[in-house]
Amino acid sequence: MKKILALLLIGVMIMASNSAVVSEATSGGKVNVSLIGRYDSADTAAIRSIDVDKKEIRLRNHSTGKTYTLSYDNTSMMYDIYGRALSPRLLEVGQIVDVTFLKSTKHITTLDVSRKAWTIATTRDHDFVRYDGTARVDGSIYKIDPRTLIIAEDQLALAEDILETDTVTVCGIDNDIYSVVVESGHGYVSLSSEMVENQSLVGAWIELDNAVIHKISPNMLLSAPEGDYTLQILGNGANYQTEVNISRNQETVVDTSEVNISRPKEGLVTFEIEPETAEVFVDGQRVLTKVPQSIQYGYHNLKILAEGYITQTKYLKIGTPKSVISLSLEKDSAAVESSSAASASTLPHKESSDLSNKDASRDKSASTATTAEQKKKETVSQNSSDNPAQNKVIEGYRIYVDEPNGAELYFDGSYIGMIPCSIAKISGNHEVILKKDGYETKSYRIHIDTSKTDLDYKFPPMIKIKSDEDSSSSATTASSSSKDASSDASSEKSSDSSGDASSESSSGGQDSSKDASSGESSDDSSSSSSSDGGTHSGSTEISDAASTASASSGD
């Protein structure tokens, strides 16, 4: 009997040691129990937010898509990826961590920056709107779904909210994206007037340090990365330059009354192209090669094509009296294989299938459209051809936008009309901007397929801008808001308690936090161009064309 009791005592001591439970008898006969190092739940999650004042960290469980809150104190041990002690202030939103905690108290025992996770920091090379469950980041393809944590300005966002000019940090494990955080967003640029000294600026070009290059259109509204820029307006007799600041989600209006109109200058440009059989088009008009051509100062659309070679679509900037443009086209391997197979090809160049049945004006608009990939710094020999599935007009079909009613619709910077309205269906990635007096301007990135069907879009309601009266009204109801907040907090705790009472599944000998995380989900309703390697002199430049698309006026 004594042996049995001794064995039981040894077992109890071992269990106490594993749980790091330390007991101490007081003079009053009471026993104090320390729970340092003890936990019953473990999880790998992305950080949703950090409140160092309340000492709370909100986490997103990627498996369930739910958010839950844990507290911490001086007994919570936190480590970086190298195992060094880490202050909670150094944690970052979107970071993936391995956390252990007590389910009953929601208290963090340990938190380690996950060594299984990868991070792609501050990149603009991304495409999160593909509608196939994937995203492209820095040239690689990853999985993305509604469970992915997407944060912009500390608020939950959608993948469609992220424009191609936004700078993001992406974190994930294996092939899954756990979080996307917008580090630098975008604002908007418009003109105070399109008429200067009885001269229209429509058709001229606007440039922001090569980050944005766009032809001016009626009632234009462009998105631009936030930051400071040198803005230029070139063409139609204008040669204007000023410094501007683009703030996130704010509209910067350029005062065109300061623009002076003069007789357009012209420069002599000589094109030296390989192969010699190549055809050169400037603004849709064919020009001769090896012979000086007179072209107005400013930006122009440049297209170079030859049978058996990949078509190049570029921007051409003229700024000197004389210049020489030397470019070499890259051979189209597909065309070579087709020729060697003795198949009678009817495509004289890579774009002809898209352009052969279009009129001249549509050919001109198509020549301005290239893929977003062409914005990367590349030489001519590395530049890819225009994707025939991008920016292709699907004849006879339209995109209908029904909501939000009464908002102004801009499609790739061009004004379309008041919603409800429609535009011609153009495939590829596009940018939609919604603007309405008294409401925050909002932009979305959408992807249009090549199917021969009409599309209907209903965008979320716009957010009203708070006026001074609204602020005063909100101040008088502060006590009411406080009550609501406390009610929400108590509701959160209640839901946590119910989550604690739910059944738990075992994972690796430890309780999974999936059930614990399901209790808190109130905030989760479901996310430059450069020289191309050709030679040029003076200030004549060639750069990759931006991803723009022509759109018809609204119905």
In short:
The protein is mainly β and 555 residues long. The strands form eleven sheets. Strands 3, 4, 5, 6, 7, 8, 40 and 41 form an eight-stranded mixed β-sheet that branches.
Structure description:
- It is a single chain.
- The chain has 555 residues and is mainly β.
- Among the domains are: 2-34; 41-113, Copper binding periplasmic protein CusF (OB fold (Dihydrolipoamide Acetyltransferase, E2P)), CATH 2.40.50; 117-184; 186-258, Carboxypeptidase-like, regulatory domain (Immunoglobulin-like), CATH 2.60.40.1120.
- The chain is built from seven helices and 42 strands.
- Strands 3, 4, 5, 6, 7, 8, 40 and 41 form an eight-stranded mixed β-sheet that branches. It has a five-stranded mixed β-sheet with strand order 9-15-16-13-14, with no helix packed on it. Strands 28-27-30-31-42 form a five-stranded antiparallel β-sheet, with no helix packed on it.
- A hairpin with a 5-residue loop joins β1 and β2 (31-34).
- The longest helix has 24 residues, at 478-501.
- The chain is elongated, with a radius of gyration of 30 Å.
- It starts with a helix and ends in an 11-residue tail after the last strand.
- 36% of the residues are buried.
- Mean pLDDT is 75; it is low at 12-27, 338-386, 474-538 and 544-555.
